[in-house]
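Chapter review: from sequence to fold.
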Amino acid sequence: MKKLIAMDCDGTIVDHTFVLKPELIEVAHKLVDAGHELVLATGRPTVLTVPVQKDLGVPEGNLAVCSNGAITISYAPDTSSGYNIVSKASFSPKEFLLIVMEHMPDAFVGVEPIGESHFLVNRNVEDHKLGADQEVVPFEQLYAKDVSRVIIYDPDGKTREFADKIEELGLEQISYAIGWNEWLDIAPYNISKASALEPVRKRLNIPHENTYAFGDGMNDITMLEWAAIGVALKNSFSETKAVAQYIAGDVSKEGIVPFLYKILRDEV
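The token string follows.
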């Protein structure tokens, strides 16, 4: 029976080196050859998701959830971008960004324009932190148009504190989660990896009982709760481990490879 295996990227299948281990690539190819669906579900923008699809050996048309659920793409290696957009969600970030500047005036702020692979930012941050091209613009330009996502990063370590502040303020038009490296990801209301994966599951006609999800961040919690089998990494946030049914190895060591082999052998 075909299975849907949803996997986060950073902190789940790649560590700080951002390189897929050969052992993971090997089992991924075996799962694809066996007819299963590997679906990336990541906070990464589209342009950084496609290379991982390629390395995993997925076929043309393979679906991936990007930008924490705001964009779903279909792998199209013969196109200039490498993908086609299947669905996208957006919101106006103005009210939220004005509050950010009031409470975290020194924070790094970036917005992801709809369907784009770069970020508009209020100031530069190290390339390895953002992982995508960035264009510095006046603050007002950050909220001039609807966007797919807002990301907040505070080098002084106040990101979690601000996440609590968002909850206190009761901003109902957004969803948020703390991702890898303490990034605060802001998405349209009710948009998450889980909300994007359910349409993917239906499109692929895979029964819910055949769904698996692997993640490590707080932005993976809804995905682990959505799946029939949710697996957190040993290096996960404690909140993420709390909703998982299983705990896999550390991403920097064996990671999820042994568990993927169990899925391949129908042992779980």
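Two observations follow directly from the output. The first strand starts at residue 4 and ends at 7. The chain has ten helices and 14 strands.
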